[in-house]
C-alpha cells in the first residue's frame, strides 16, 4: 500500500470531488460516516459517555458528522468545539448547522482553560481537533487541553491522525500530542505512524478506504510503501515441480566465535527453514561439534583458529554469502571480512559484528558488492551513518548512504524499514515478543536464503522481513510474547509461508 503525503491526499481529495461530481461536504459525510460505522459496530449502543472534541477545520467537521450520527443512534454524546481560531472551514460550518438542527442547541465552545470539561476514566473521547492541516505546534490552552485528555485515562480515538502530530516531521519532545488508543485514518497511512519517535501516539491503527479516486491514486508517485500480507504474497516465487536442491541456492554463512556459535546456528537454521537448497557454514574450529549436532543438514568448514575467524574460504563457490553474526571485531576477523569482500562480486548480506567492522573500517564500504544487504539495529546504524536529530533526518541519511554505496539497508525496529536508494518499504508484521536475542541472526538467514533462491536482493529483504514478522506473530499466538525465542521464529518459517496463502489470514491484514 502506498503511503501518501498530506499534499498528495489533498490532491486526491480534490480530484475525487471533481471526478465523482460530489461536494467536499459529501466527501466529508462519506469519510466520517465510515468512522461512525466502526464506532457503532464496536460499541453496539453501549450507554457510555462519549466526548467529542472538534477543531474548526475539516478534521473538526468530521467530528461534527460523527457526533450527529452517534446522537441519531441514541448514544450519550457531548460535543465540544475547540475554538482555537475563528477561521472555521465551510464544511465545518455546514455541519455545525446540521448538528444544531438535530440537537436544538449549539455544541459547548472551549475558548480558554476555564471551559475545560471533566474527563473521566470510563469516557470515550473522540479527538477531531487537528488532522493533516496541522502546520505548527499546538500551544497555549489548546496544548493544556491535549494534556488533560492524555492524563484522563479515558479511551481515546483519533480521527485521521492524533492531534498535534505532523504528517511530515516529528513533534518536539515536549510537544502537545494526543496519545490515542486507536487511530482511524483516511485512505492512506501516514509515514509518522511507523517511525520509532511517533508510533506510540497512534495506538492501534485502522485505515479506512474512503473511496478517493483509484486511478488518480494509482498514478501518484510514492516512494514509501507499507508492506502487508497482500504485498508480501505478490513477491513470493513458487517452487517448480521439476526442480532439485541446486535450484534453491547454495548459501555460505560466515560467522561465530568462542561463546557465540549459537548465532550462526540460528542463521543457518533460518536459511534452511526458508527453503535453502544447500547450506554451508564457515566458522572457528570450536563450533564444529555444536553445528554438526545442532543442524545435521548443514555442511561445515572451519577456520584454522579455534576461537575466531581469521580468513575466508576464497575458493568456495556460493550463490550468496552472509557474514557477521557472533564474529567479534578482532583485527584477525577484520581481515576475514576484507578477504570476503575482495572475493565476492555478487550481493552479500552483512549483519551484527560485520556491520561494526564496516563502521570501524569505512574504506571497506566501497568494496561492498552492488545491492548487498546490510541489516543494522539502531546502535549499529548509528555507528554506520552517524547520529541523527530525528527520525526524518535518519531516513534521509540512510537514503544517502544507500545511494552512495549502492546497498540496501534493513533498519530493524518495531516497524522494520527496508531502504533501497529513494524507496522505503515499511514492514507491518511482527510483535514485541520478537525483541529477543538472536532474532536478527534469524532475519539474516531468511534474507540470505531468499537471495540464494533467486529473489532480487531488495525483494528478498522486504519479503524476508515480512515473513520473519509473520513467523513471530504465529509463534506469539501459540506461546505468547515472553517465551518467544529466536529459534522459534526460524522453526515456524514453514507455517509463515503457508499462512500467506490461507484465506482468513489474507483478510486479517
Ligand atoms: N484529504 C482527505 O482525504 C479528506 C480529509 N478530511 C479531513 O480533513 C482534515 C484536514 O482538514 P483541514 O485541512 O481543514 O485541516 P485541520 O487538520 O482540520 O486543521 C484546521 C486548521 O487549523 C489551523 N492550524 C494548524 N495548526 C494549528 C495550530 N497549531 N494551532 C492553531 N491552528 C492551527 C490551520 O489553519 P491556519 O490557522 O494555519 O490558517 C488548519 O487549516 C483531514 O485530516 C481529515 O480529517 C475528510 O473530511 C475528507 C477527506
Ligand atoms: K484528530
TrEMBL record:
InterPro entries: Carbohydrate_kinase_pred_CS (IPR017953), CARKD (IPR000631), Nnr (IPR030677), Ribokinase-like (IPR029056), YjeF_N_dom (IPR004443), YjeF_N_dom_sf (IPR036652). Residues 228-500 form the YjeF C-terminal domain. One of its GO terms (biological process) is nicotinamide nucleotide metabolic process. The keyword Nucleotide-binding applies. Gene3D superfamilies: 3.40.1190.20, YjeF N-terminal domain (3.40.50.10260). Keywords: ATP-binding, Isomerase, Lyase, Metal-binding, Multifunctional enzyme, NAD, NADP, Nucleotide-binding, Potassium. It holds the Pfam family Carb_kinase. Binds 1 potassium ion per subunit. AMP binds at residues 412-416, 440. K(+) binds at residues 59, 127, 163. (6S)-NADPHX binds at residues 58-62, 131-137, 160, 326, 377, 441. It catalyses: (6S)-NADHX + ADP = AMP + phosphate + NADH + H(+); (6R)-NADHX = (6S)-NADHX; (6S)-NADPHX + ADP = AMP + phosphate + NADPH + H(+); (6R)-NADPHX = (6S)-NADPHX. One of its GO terms (molecular function) is NAD(P)HX epimerase activity. Residues 9-218 form the YjeF N-terminal domain. Its cofactor is K(+); Mg(2+). Its EC number is 4.2.1.136, 5.1.99.6. PANTHER family: ATP-DEPENDENT (S)-NAD(P)H-HYDRATE DEHYDRATASE, ATP-DEPENDENT (S)-NAD(P)H-HYDRATE DEHYDRATASE FAMILY MEMBER. Belongs to the NnrD/CARKD family. Belongs to the NnrE/AIBP family. Catalyzes the epimerization of the S- and R-forms of NAD(P)HX, a damaged form of NAD(P)H that is a result of enzymatic or heat-dependent hydration. This is a prerequisite for the S-specific NAD(P)H-hydrate dehydratase to allow the repair of both epimers of NAD(P)HX. Homotetramer. This is Bifunctional NAD(P)H-hydrate repair enzyme.
Amino acid at each position: 500500500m502506498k503511503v501518501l503525503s498530506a499534499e498528495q491526499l489533498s490532491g486526491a481529495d480534490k480530484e475525487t470531488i471533481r471526478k465523482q461530481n460530489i461536494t467536499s461536504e459529501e466527501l466529508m459525510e462519506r469519510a466520517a460516516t465510515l468512522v461512525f460505522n466502526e464506532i457503532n459496530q464496536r460499541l453496539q449502543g453501549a450507554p457510555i459517555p462519549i466526548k467529542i472534541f472538534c477543531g474548526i477545520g475539516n478534521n473538526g467537521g468530521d467530528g461534527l458528522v460523527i457526533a450527529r450520527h452517534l446522537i441519531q443512534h441514541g448514544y450519550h454524546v457531548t460535543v465540544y468545539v475547540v475554538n482555537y481560531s475563528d477561521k472555521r472551514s465551510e464544511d465545518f460550518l455546514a455541519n455545525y448547522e446540521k448538528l444544531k438542527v438535530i440537537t436544538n442547541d449549539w455544541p459547548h465552545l472551549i475558548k480558554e482553560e476555564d471551559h475545560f470539561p471533566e474527563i473521566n476514566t470510563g469516557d470515550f473521547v473522540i479527538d477531531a481537533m487537528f488532522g493533516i492541516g496541522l502546520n505548527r505546534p499546538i500551544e497555549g490552552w489548546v496544548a493544556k487541553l491535549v494534556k488533560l485528555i492524555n492524563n484522563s485515562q479515558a479511551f481515546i480515538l483519533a480521527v485521521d491522525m492524533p492531534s498535534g502530530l505532523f504528517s511530515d516531521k516529528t513533534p518536539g519532545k515536549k510537544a502537545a500530542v494526543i496519545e490515542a488508543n486507536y487511530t482511524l485514518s483516511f485512505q492512506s497511512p501516514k509515514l509518522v505512524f511507523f517511525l520509532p519517535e511517533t508510533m506510540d501516539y497512534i495506538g492501534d491503527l485502522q485505515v479506512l478506504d474512503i473511496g478517493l479516486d483509484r486511478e488518480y491514486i494509482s498514478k501518484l508517485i510514492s516512494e514509501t510503501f507499507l508492506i502487508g500480507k497482500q504485498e508480501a504474497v505478490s513477491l513470493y516465487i513458487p517452487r517448480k515441480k521439476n526442480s532439485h536442491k541446486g535450484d534453491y541456492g547454495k548459501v555460505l554463512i560466515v560467522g561465530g566465535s568462542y561463546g557465540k556459535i549459537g548465532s550462526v546456528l540460528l542463521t543457518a537454521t533460518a536459511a534452511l527453514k526458508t527453503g535453502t537448497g544447500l547450506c554451508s557454514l564457515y566458522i572457528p574450529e570450536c563450533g564444529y561439534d555444536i553445528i554438526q549436532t545442532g543442524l545435521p543438514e548443514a555442511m561445515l568448514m572451519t577456520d584454522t583458529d579455534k576461537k575466531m575467524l581469521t580468513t575466508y574460504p576464497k575458493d568456495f563457490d556460493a550463490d550468496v554469502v552472509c557474514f557477521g553474526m557472533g564474529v567479534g571485531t578482532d583485527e584477525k576477523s577484520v581481515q576475514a571480512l576484507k578477504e570476503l569482500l575482495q572475493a565476492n562480486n555478487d550481493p552479500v548480506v552483512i549483519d551484527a559484528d560485520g556491520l561494526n567492522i564496516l563502521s570501524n573500517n569505512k574504506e571497506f564500504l566501497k568494496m561492498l558488492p552492488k545491492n548487498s544487504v546490510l541489516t543494522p539495529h539502531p546502535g549499529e546504524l548509528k555507528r554506520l551513518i552517524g547520529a541523527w536529530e530525528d527520525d526524518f533526518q535518519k531516513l534521509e541519511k540512510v537514503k544517502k548512504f544507500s545511494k552512495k554505496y549502492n546497498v540496501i539497508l534493513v533498519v530493524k525496529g518495531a516497524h522494520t524499514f527496508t531502504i533501497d536508494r529513494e524507496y522505503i518499504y515499511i514492514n507491518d508484521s511482527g510483535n514485541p515478543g520478537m525483541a529477543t536475542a538472536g532474532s536478527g541472526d534469524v532475519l539474516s538467514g531468511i534474507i540470505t536464503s531468499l537471495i540464494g533462491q533467486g529473489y532480487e536482493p531488495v525483494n528478498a529483504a522486504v519479503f524476508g522481513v515480512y515473513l520473519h514478522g509473520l513467523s513471530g506473530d504465529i509463534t506469539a499466538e501459540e506461546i505468547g510474547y515472553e517465551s518467544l525465542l529466536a529459534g522459534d521464529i526460524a522453526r515456524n518459517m514453514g507455517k509463515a509461508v503457508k499462512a500467506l496463502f490461507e484465506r482468513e489470514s489474507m483478510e486479517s491484514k
